[in-house]
Each structure stands twice: as structure tokens, then as C-alpha cells.
Amino acid sequence: MNQDLRHSSRRAAKTPSVARHGRLKTHSAWRTVAKITASVVAVTLISGSAVAAYAAWDLASTVKPTVTLGNEEVLEGVPDVGAMEGGVNLLVVGSDSRQGQGEAFGDPDEETAVLNDVTMLMHISEDHTNASVVSFPRDMLIDVPECTDPEDPSSTLSEQYGVKINTVLSHGGLGCVVKTVETELGITIPFAGIVQFMGVAGLSEAVGGVDVCVAEPIEDEYTGTFLEAGTHTLSGVAALQFLRTRHGVGDGSDLARISNQQVFLSSLARTLQSNGTLGDPVKLYSIAKAALANMQLSDSLMDPTRMISIAKALKDTDLNKIAFIQYPTAYADGGGAVVPTDSADYVRTALQNDLPVSFDPAALAESEFGTVADPNAAPPAEVPAEEVPAEEAPAETAPAPTVEALPADVTGQTAAETRCSAGRTLDDQ
């Protein structure tokens, strides 16, 4: 009981005012010129190369219409070159829209939708010593606050209650998705972006592919994903299909797909650190270009040097302290949707208080939709809990927690941990 009260009171005390709505914004000519000029200067500082001017022009030429979230004032004074100072909250939305994606993913006129089937928050701590990536199930029921209509900024969209989170993008655009997640978590999110199918493929190619471990064969006719057991290097469309597959992994649910995505993302984090990408301006440039060309970004991310500075913030972060968390949910009455459990308060507390998290060892072992340990991987090194010396902690005062221990119903993994996708064949579907 005391622990529940501690988390509830922390949540109430830490919840900041919610950022204003998002709206679509058209670039004026002077703003575009300013972007190009700033990019030329910044890329020159980073690369020190004669090709910097062309690189900056090349990046600026890929700019798409952006979204204003309305909370950009929190970024005043943030430097444009070097690692981002302070903490970062960035929301990535994966849209299932087929518009502009060709016919490889279905007829864009008949099968397209505007659903945020992937909603993922990345939090980097203020001191860059830890990070959390929180995935929200697409069928999670959530309350949506008032949002400005992106089609008519002079009008307001009414609140919604108990709707699936993946409908918020079509309801009020990216700004409304950001505002909804801010309200749920009690934090401010100044960075956001929407990525479509080909954007994911492009980003995976920009990093040179990602190695994934498959424990049992994956067979999914819906996405065309067929992988034998073993390790595979995936990039382009193959990487996209691996991230999209649901029927071919775990119990065939969206919760299993999230676990599968965490296999990919943890390997991506290891790849970015091991091959020096996060310290290489040329490689960071290629990633920035892929993002600008394939994503719709918030105004706060349109300066490519800011994107690079966010990436650099993770350059030296311990992989054991980069956590991929599935937001804890349980099936609602009647099935077909999930609702956050009480354990979600632990995730909120960690984010609000800038704390690293630790997983309960039993969490994945008891999960029906989780992944499996790689039998060939060495176990990750244990990270000892930080202790406050007795002489510095008064006996009558309990020391502030330094790690948020997550309950057994919160699944996920660290970037240091190699796990394998629990494949599912056609016979099991």
C-alpha cells in the first residue's frame, strides 16, 4: 500500500502542464533559406570538409512539411552542435498509410488508413547515463484530450474517452498523439516524427543492416516474412517486414510484435555503438538524410544538426542502461483491446524522475508473447545497484531511489541483452 501511495503521489507531484496542440505548418521562403544556411554552417563545423555545403543543401532539399507541437519553447538555448544537453523525450509514430509507398504494401486508394500502429517514446536521461524506449500496444484504450483540428486550426476537436490509441493519428494528427501520450505519462515531449513503410526500410539501410536472432522459423504470409532459425542481417524491405510481422511470432498478437521489435531495436543499439556510427559524422549524415527524406517531423527536429546531437547523446550510454519497455497492459473485458495496468505507474515514475529501470527476471519467463534468450550469447553483466554511503544518508531519512524496479508484468529487455524472436510457423496459425 505504501509503495502504491509513493508512486501515485510522485505521479501527481511530477506531472507538468500539458503541451499545446499540434498543427500542420507551411514553410515560408525565408524559413527554408534559413534552414539551408544553418545546415551549411553546422555541417561544416561537424565534418570540416569541402563537401559540407553540398551535404547541407542535400539535406535541406529533402525537407517535407512539418508539424508544430506547440511546446518548442522548452528547447530555447539548446545548442545545435555536439551532443544534446539535458534530457530528450522523442515520440516516434509508425503510420500504416499506403499513400506514396507504391503498391508493394497494397492498393494505396483502397487499403490505406491513417493509424498510428506503432507509438513509441524514447527518453534519454539528463546526464545521458540511461535511456528508455517505451512501446504502447496499438489496441490500448486511452483517453484523448482536446486537440486542435489540424485541418482547421481555428477549431478544437473534442475529448475522447476509452478509444484505441492507434486511432488518435487519424483523429487529430501527430500533435494530438503527442498530447495524448504526454497526458498519459505526465511528461513533456518536444520531439516527434511520423514514419511510413519505406521510411523504416530506408533507415535500416542507412545503418548498414541489423542482425536479428530467430529461435524458431518465422512464417507469415501476411507480410511475406519467412526466416529460418538462426541469425539474419536485415535491411530495407526485409527489415520492415520483420518489424511488421505479427502472425509469425509469439502468440500472433500485437504484444508479440512489440517483443519482436525489441529484438530488432536492441540489436540496432548494439550496432550503432559497436561500429562507431554515433561518433561518425558521415554515417550520422546518411541517417539524418534518410530520416528527412522518409519522415514527417516536428519543427523541433527539422534542423539536421539537432537530430545528430540527439544521436550523439547516446554515444557513451551503457547498453545495460538502455531499456526497451512494453507498456504494461491487460486484456479488457470481452477482449479485442487492452488497458494499462497499475504497473504502468512504475513506468511513469521512472520517466518523470529520470530514473533507469530494472526488469524482474521472471517477467519474460512467464510471458506468453515474449521472446527467448539466445542460447549462444553470454549473459549480460549484472549492474550493481548504486548505494548511498551510510555517512551521507541520515538514519532517519530513506535515500532517494536510484533505479525504478519494474514489477513482473512489465516485459522488455536491455540493449545489452541478446534475445531471439520466438517464431511461429503456418501450422501453428
What does this structure look like?
- By secondary structure, the chain is an alpha+beta fold.
- The chain has two domains: 2-27 and 63-382 and 402-428, Aminopeptidase (3-Layer(aba) Sandwich), CATH 3.40.630.190; 28-62, no CATH class.
- It contains eleven helices and 23 strands.
- The strands form eight sheets. Strands 15-10-3-4-5-16-22 form a seven-stranded mixed sheet, with helices on both faces. Strands 14-11-23-20 form a four-stranded mixed sheet. Strands 1-2 form a two-stranded antiparallel ribbon.
- Helix 1 packs across helix 10, helix 5 packs antiparallel against helix 8 (281-294) and helix 8 (281-294) crosses helix 9.
- The longest helix has 21 residues, at 254-274.
- The radius of gyration is 21 Å and the shape is globular.
What's this entry about, in short?
The chain is of the alpha+beta class.
The first-level CATH class of the largest domain is given as: Alpha Beta
Helical content stands at 25-40%
Gyration radius over CA: 21 Å
CATH superfamily of the largest domain: LCP protein
CATH architecture of the largest domain: 3-Layer(aba) Sandwich
Total beta strands:
23
Main sheet: which strands, in order across? 15-10-3-4-5-16-22
Topology diagram in text:
Layout: H1 2-14, E1 23-25, H2 29-47, H3 52-60, E2 66-68, E3 88-95, E4 116-124, E5 131-136, E6 141-144, E7 147-149, E8 152-157, E9 160-164, H4 168-185, E10 191-195, H5 197-206, E11 210-214, E12 218-220, E13 225-227, E14 230-234, H6 236-244, H7 254-274, H8 281-294, E15 295-297, H9 304-312, E16 322-326, E17 329-331, E18 338-340, H10 344-352, E19 357-358, H11 362-365, E20 372-373, E21 404-405, E22 412-414, E23 419-421
Parallel strand pairs: 3-10, 5-16, 11-23, 19-21
Antiparallel strand pairs: 1-2, 3-4, 4-5, 6-9, 7-8, 10-15, 11-14, 12-13, 16-22, 17-18, 20-23
Helix pairs in contact: 1-10, 2-3, 3-8, 5-6, 5-8, 8-9
